[in-house]
Amino acid sequence: MSTSSKVGIAVVGAGYWGPNLIRNFRAADDWDLVAVCDLDVERAQKALGARSGVEVHADLVDVLARDDVDAIAIATPARTHQDIALTAMRAGKHVLVEKPLADSVANGSAMVDLARSQDVVLMADHTYCYTPAVQKIRELIADGALGEILFIDSVRINLGLVQPDVDVFWDLAPHDLSILDFILPDGLRPEGVAAHGADPLRAGKSCVGYLTMPLPGGAIAHVHVNWLSPTKIRQMVIGGSRRTLVWDDLNPQQRISVYDRGVDLAQVSADDRTAATISYRLGDTWAPALPEREALGSMVAEYAACIRDKRASLTDGAAGLRVLSVLEAASASLVTGGSLVDPDTRTVEREAV
Amino acid sequence: MSTSSKVGIAVVGAGYWGPNLIRNFRAADDWDLVAVCDLDVERAQKALGARSGVEVHADLVDVLARDDVDAIAIATPARTHQDIALTAMRAGKHVLVEKPLADSVANGSAMVDLARSQDVVLMADHTYCYTPAVQKIRELIADGALGEILFIDSVRINLGLVQPDVDVFWDLAPHDLSILDFILPDGLRPEGVAAHGADPLRAGKSCVGYLTMPLPGGAIAHVHVNWLSPTKIRQMVIGGSRRTLVWDDLNPQQRISVYDRGVDLAQVSADDRTAATISYRLGDTWAPALPEREALGSMVAEYAACIRDKRASLTDGAAGLRVLSVLEAASASLVTGGSLVDPDTRTVEREAV
Amino acid sequence: MSTSSKVGIAVVGAGYWGPNLIRNFRAADDWDLVAVCDLDVERAQKALGARSGVEVHADLVDVLARDDVDAIAIATPARTHQDIALTAMRAGKHVLVEKPLADSVANGSAMVDLARSQDVVLMADHTYCYTPAVQKIRELIADGALGEILFIDSVRINLGLVQPDVDVFWDLAPHDLSILDFILPDGLRPEGVAAHGADPLRAGKSCVGYLTMPLPGGAIAHVHVNWLSPTKIRQMVIGGSRRTLVWDDLNPQQRISVYDRGVDLAQVSADDRTAATISYRLGDTWAPALPEREALGSMVAEYAACIRDKRASLTDGAAGLRVLSVLEAASASLVTGGSLVDPDTRTVEREAV
Amino acid sequence: MSTSSKVGIAVVGAGYWGPNLIRNFRAADDWDLVAVCDLDVERAQKALGARSGVEVHADLVDVLARDDVDAIAIATPARTHQDIALTAMRAGKHVLVEKPLADSVANGSAMVDLARSQDVVLMADHTYCYTPAVQKIRELIADGALGEILFIDSVRINLGLVQPDVDVFWDLAPHDLSILDFILPDGLRPEGVAAHGADPLRAGKSCVGYLTMPLPGGAIAHVHVNWLSPTKIRQMVIGGSRRTLVWDDLNPQQRISVYDRGVDLAQVSADDRTAATISYRLGDTWAPALPEREALGSMVAEYAACIRDKRASLTDGAAGLRVLSVLEAASASLVTGGSLVDPDTRTVEREAV
After folding, report:
1. Could you read off the pLDDT of B16-34 as tens digits, one per residue?
2. Which partner for B88 in A42, B93, C143, C224 could form a disulfide, CB atoms 3.0-4.6 Å apart?
3. What is the pLDDT of residues D236-273, one digit of tens each?
4. Among candidates D157, D196, D204 on the partner chain, residue whose Cβ is nearest the Cβ of C273
5. Pairwise CA distance, residues B353 & B345, whole Å
6. Residue to test with chain A: of C284, C290, C293, most A Cβ within 10 A
């Protein structure tokens, strides 16, 4: 621990996401941001601004050698997560990793295993799970307000940067998958994953992608991710047997709408299914008030609490692994033209918890 | 022909869709609505209103026997289309059929064949193709305003009536597929069809459905149809190499937006693809003015023109068959868990035109 | 009464609004549309369509002479309302008048007086009052769901036809004023009316208009009407001490939103008002389900019920007079540069009821 | 000047707005934030965050005594602006003042006069004028894209903090008025100001307000400000003789829409004005691309440029005075029940420039 009652943190990587972490660790009462690490020290300095008392390092070794660094937050490309995380955990540091946890299930598993043996916190920065909207959705599902989940349709499209090393699934779908993992009572455990992608620009990887995931009990989850759309849509429809919820993340005045509206099917004998047995509920709509709170603020608070209370995070390594399992299954499905692939998320959990 | 210069028309079926046809044939200068046919004559009478001079028949034979009936419009369940259409064409009447053209490719083909040998007009009521929005989209694509088509994503979800005899694909996707057929320069000719559905209510058929269709040249089309959504979305995103178009049918103030915005990929050697070669256009948005015109009014005008000019319709039997081919391929894909099925739309066209 | 149990109705005027009335009287079980009257008989015939059994007259005298005409509906320019209505009422016919009731308080009063002495129904076609949304708003206010009304802001702007004989206040504001009269528990009784208008096109009359109306108890109502706006807005915000309601008539998926959100002011002594005494409620939003029903259908049903039950309508002549009083006060304010003018709606009511 | 090539700045006031200024001065290449001044030093320290090298002062005198402070930015209540600004200018410092410039025309004038005699920059932080949207609007009007301005309607409503010392006009309308001043080619020079307010909560001041301002040439500007609305609206409609522009600040995907749609009036003799002479343009809509840039970043850059180039700002003291003149006229109108009051903005300009 650092000399104060605050937890000392170093941010590793000052590129796209790092500055957001820097800002939030700085503003948090729980944390003392003591260092930023980036090969490009000028970039790190710029992220901190002038007249800053936070130190900048080019070499991770120097960061990990510091006594006032209790924990690190990794915001580097996914292919580097495993190395940095393992090195830091061996030095006894707690580790937070930007999504996705790693670039493969195997590498993610190694991280989960080492965290357990070193007895340090390993947490995935599944940022969306810390938004007031997703927290409310999780709560509503847990309370049974939606009933049994029938379908989930998630759309995340935008004009996005075509990434040099990952396709649109690995870039954007971790958001949707980590949210699904967070809100579903048993986590994300699809019965299969079918992926369809397109590379119409000949960029060498899918820029448009669709994921279909049959869920236990006849339900279905579907994700549309797209780098080529000029309009931005971030919307999730969660159909339940009692109510249906629509989350429109780009409508700050009414992010969540809960519709007491749906189709009911009376119990009928198998040979007597007709339209007559179906009835409609056309009830009211309800939009719960959501606090105005930045997700990253809640996320860094959860990280501090996990360290203090020596407990697993709501978005722990196992959650990160379940997301990786679906991503790997998607990649496998893609090369077979869209066949259903078993993500085997059950095994994942057993190892991780 | 009826004694006047107008074409005499009878509407067959006064259920859900029939009254809309009745209203439009009545209001059209080209047409003289002389009869309505429905087994339920009271329903037919109600659709016409009191003090109407239009005759009502319960028996199709009586309608077809009338000299003042030059043409009919069929608005009955899809499984009855073939019988009614064949009988009418044998009686020398022109035939308009509500979507889908028939309940199978085989039955649709029989209709197309008979229309040719009888030399009568066979037209599919692909209503959306006659909206000002879709007409404009077709024109923009034909003029090259969008460039090469890269992806098409269509969403049509709503709280819908769970149909007794068809699933959500056969109920709703004909709209999307007929639009795709209409706007694509070569019609709808996907390289395959993969369908995923869910029946979480145990209604005995898919209530949520996803269609994925690889298109020639690496493009992709995707359709989401859903009976269980409490919110209504009718939106199509058409990504092109020059511009991208978004059609939001529920925004009457700006149904079509054309974005001069996108991702460009510079020509690079195969071994040197990196993010650096990609550039963005963040240009203006343009929303073309669209006339306020009811689609059905344009559709019945096209029907009259085809009869008068003895020409094929923009939405002729061949178009209807291409839609049926994709629907049959989707049903076949569904039973195999989502594998890609060849809809063989090329053969369809050769026979039909 | 006509020979059937239905009430016989004739529509006078087949211009812009008449066809809507024709369609609704035709479709209603209560009514038997027997005649349409218009100086331009071709226009009347066109509104009825071919093969119609409804008679067309050019002369009002002929209509009023018919025994099967129990009631008429007037859809002619406002300056002709009084003459037609008085003539019809003298012939013993019930009268429905398109908004505004008349072109002056004096003329409207004459109509109200004659209706009373002739014992016939005089009803104003304040169509919006029969929409499910306005009916729900009236109900919520009556039930106290909003608490005490604090402010009402109504916007009705659109690219509109610059009328030859009336300004934008007399053309559009009758909608807003009749709605206010309908939903306010005591009807529309402002303490004054201030009007500001602009004629930037030099059309000879206001094309942009603002009405400000202090209400009893410190509340305020404000109306913005505008013929020159390329975007269409029809929105009313009704602020209450308990909740605030927003009615967005162009959002069919959520026309009414009720916000349990607002500012509370603790009771404080007059010399101690500070920001500290104010608290916020940031509660949930609730959107009541509204039936899908055409307002004109409900309006003609109310007209029939009033005749049958010999009772005053919810939008009777007195309501029409209160609207006229405000419009006249607005015209008076306009010529004085916006000074507050007393509409004297109290007198109006005493005479009318 | 501070020893570096950067301009040394101190922010005075670390309450609501100060932290935004702190963040932007810190991030700007032009500036060196050297001090923050607040009576509540803890609040100032918190705004800076831990490990900051920026000094905190409780006393303005200490700030002004520093050689490395070239300029200050005032973010304190309006009633304190004059004192702080005059003191700073007497010490030779440049001054930026949060809106409104002062709490009266007299006080604002004193500031403008002293700035001139001391030869320092006096700039009003009319933040909205530095948004890409408002800059584009100014440019479009200057280029004649809208033609002659016919009407401007501005709505700024929200659940707002009821301020202890100012009413809703003085709190919110400075935004609208400074924007009008910025985009109108001759600045904001209404022919009169009429204000209507309501205090339905009995807070001791207007919480709902309407400003009507006849403009030269028959045009009109109108502003609706409201602290009690549960929905947030920030929208301005600018009607022109050629095109009409709608600015919806809460729609980041299409903030500005330019409608080539409107009403045309043919030249007619005065005694022959009829509807027939009016025609409609129903043209396309165009939404210019806007850069993603924070307004405050551009504002602080303009402040630096004014100091360096020794020139007046786009939002200089004279602009601030014109806004104050309208606010004072509004207050005067309010006590007379809404009569038109002359803001005398012409004099203002002559003195100020």
Report:
1. 999 999 999 999 999 999 9
2. B93
3. 999 999 999 999 999 999 999 999 988 877 544 444 44
4. D204
5. 12
6. C284
Tell me the residues of chain C between 306 and 335 that have a Cβ less than 8 Å away from chain D. Answer: none
* Whether B283 contacts chain D with CB within 8 A: yes
The length of chain C in residues reads 353
B-chain CB neighbours of D132 within 8 Å are none
pLDDT tens digits along C154-182: 999 998 878 888 999 999 999 999 999 99
pLDDT for residue C23 is more than 70: yes
pLDDT tens string D53-79: 999 999 999 999 999 999 999 999 999
- Is pLDDT at B308 greater than 80 in this prediction? yes
Angstrom distance (rounded) from CA A220 to CA B200: 8
| pLDDT, tens digit, 9 for 90 and up, residues D102-147 | 999 999 999 999 999 999 999 999 999 999 999 999 999 999 999 9
Residues from chain A contacting residue C288 (CB–CB below 8 Å): 284
Residues in chain B closer than 8 A to C34 (CB atoms): 51
Q: How far apart are CA C164 and CA A47, in angstroms?
A: 64
C323: closest CA of chain B, how far (Å) = 30
Nearest by CB to D289, which of B254, B282, B288? Answer: B282
Whether the CB-CB separation of B320 and B312 falls below 8 Å is answered with no
In this structure, is the dihedral angle defined by the CA atoms of residues B59, B61, B67 and B73, taken in order, positive or negative? positive
Chain D residues closer than 8 Å to A231 by CB: 253
A54 inside 8 A of chain D by CB = yes
List, in order, residues 6 or more apart from C124 with CB less than 8 Å away.
Answer: C96, C97, C99, C100, C101, C178, C313, C315, C316, C317, C319, C320, C323
D230 touches chain A (CB under 8 A): no
Residues of chain A with C-beta less than 8 angstroms from the C-beta of D50: 26, 32-33, 53
Nearest one of D160, D195, D189 to D177, comparing CA atoms: D189
Give Rg (Cα) of chain A: 22
- A130 pLDDT exceeds 70? yes
**Of the candidates A54, A64, A69, A62, the residue with the CA atom closest to the CA atom of residue A19:** A54
The predicted pLDDT at position B346 comes to 54
All domains of chain C in start order, with CATH: 129-251+325-352 (3.30.360.10)
Interface TM-score (ipTM) > 0.90: yes
Give the pTM.
0.94
